[in-house]
Specification:
The complex is a heterodimer of chains A (277) and B (327). With 277 residues, chain A is an alpha/beta fold. Chain A contains 9 helices and 5 strands, in the order ααβααβαβααβαβα. Chain B starts with a helix and ends with a helix. Classes of the chains: A alpha/beta (277), B alpha/beta (327).
Chain lengths: 277, 327
Amino acid sequence: MTDRELEIKAVRLRKRLLQLIHYAGAGHTGGDLSCLEILLVLYNRILRIDPANPRDPNRDRYVQSKGHSVEALYVVLADRGFFPEPELESLCKYKSRFIGHPTRKVPGIEMNTGALGHGLSISVGMALAAKMDNAPWRVFTLLGDGELAEGSNWEAAMAAAHYKLDNLVAIVDHNRLQITGPTRQVMCTEPLADKFAAFGWTVRAVDGHSIPALTEVLTQPPVPAKPTCVIADTVKGKGISFMENDPKWHHGVPNANELAAALAELDAAEARLLAGS
Amino acid sequence: MFSAAAQARLAQLGLQPGRPNLDEYSATLIELARADRNIVALTSDSRGSGKLWPFAHALPEQLIEVGVAEQNLVGIAAGLAACGKKPFATSPSCFLTARALEQIKNDVCYSDVPAVLVGISAGVSYGALGSTHHSLHDIAALRAIHNITIIVPADNFETREAVRAAARAQHPVFLRFGKAPMYNLHSPATRFEVGRAIMLRDGSDVAFIATGETVVHALLAAAELAERGLTARVLSMHTIKPLDTQAVLDAARRCRAIITVEEHSVHGGLGEACAAALIQAGVHVPMRIVGIPDEETVTGSQADVFRHYGISMEGLAETAETLISAI
């Protein structure tokens, strides 16, 4: 799949996840929109996974520590064929397996997450399991920048370096906003790159909305004996003018008019991409 | 731990001293881990208190040290368990089940990975070190979390069997151990089954339903009561969850009164679990819950604390007599 095709897919999946959140009446819109390209690159270019065999013991593992951005994960998994896409219309409905945070009931999801500050420790455990077995598979996790105020992340960051887990990649969705407002004002986690470097990690920065840049950084081999942190600069609410950089869209749900306006913007963006291809 | 009178009863019953359940845990885990390289011990700077130095020396590749970081201990254990390993995350129960409760709830139980959580030096094992080091909440906290088996062995036999059962389990298990040497309570023919109480003695005036390191005291109290013409059933309720409800109901139907005994807060532990089972079955029987009351725990060794709160041969016999005499 070309960069352009993935870019078009990103626009289409943005439309779909906004529709799903609208139908469900619930969702974490802003963070979904900030991490979508990261997920698309992981699931289309990086992770060694087989939707027909989602429990293959030799698969790469992905743990979504920022579990609230589950709608983005669901649409990407559906697009890759882990389950029939129309099932997503049951999102958050009575007895649905598509809960408002990641659940192993859904094929392709490794762990139940949603409480913040859990995914990195779990990922360290997975990476240790691979090391103990001399297995080649790798572990990827997606962290929120607001989430990094949870102290458990730094326990895990220490352990990842201590055990030289070069089979572990932690991506930070660095959108600089959390539910209350700018992360710098709520509880400053900066300088993030320096913090991870001081904990013994290789740190790489990337434009978290650029398909080619994400592909390039995630295909770089790790520095031996060091875990890798990729700080992906993103925009919360990316792609919808009135949602970008506004914390009210952390878990804002678009009403019918807002959905129509958002879809119109995305239709225009898709038309531009198609015209350019 | 035992008064002179209680020591005489131990001799009379022919009970032989064993070792601390933690030592039995360590020895059993080494035996299992030698045969299965997927078994991994995790410690949070707790290999000494967990008696896991022998494991560390024998199987260094199967021991993971996380330092003083209980949340990370449990999160890492969950990740290992999700990838085919059988982790035994071993840490003082006071820290394991409080500091890392959210990891237990979400990463282990909700994600349903076959991790084993081993709460060591539980209850008031740390005695005079104070409430920071006591775990009188752990059973209550874990009982309210779906999808975890809770086992509190009373002696070395129950410990060995519980560790083996935990190693085979496909779902989360919590094992709770104290650090005092334990008397061997069971005959060689005894069968251990998770979720099934073991009857150590039968009688009809009172039933002691006890768990963990309190069971021996209940057994001694039963012998003491026999001298006074009262017969007592004694159950070792090693599995708190799932509770052997049938054994509780049978005891209530067969005996005139029930006394539960636990090294835990009287809130949310074995006693309240039994009371809920009885009331909901419509079985009404005089009952006392013996445990640590809802107050700042008295200072002292485990033996001092037990004696202070009536977890002793003398204390339990007196509680039984008082309860029965009022019927």
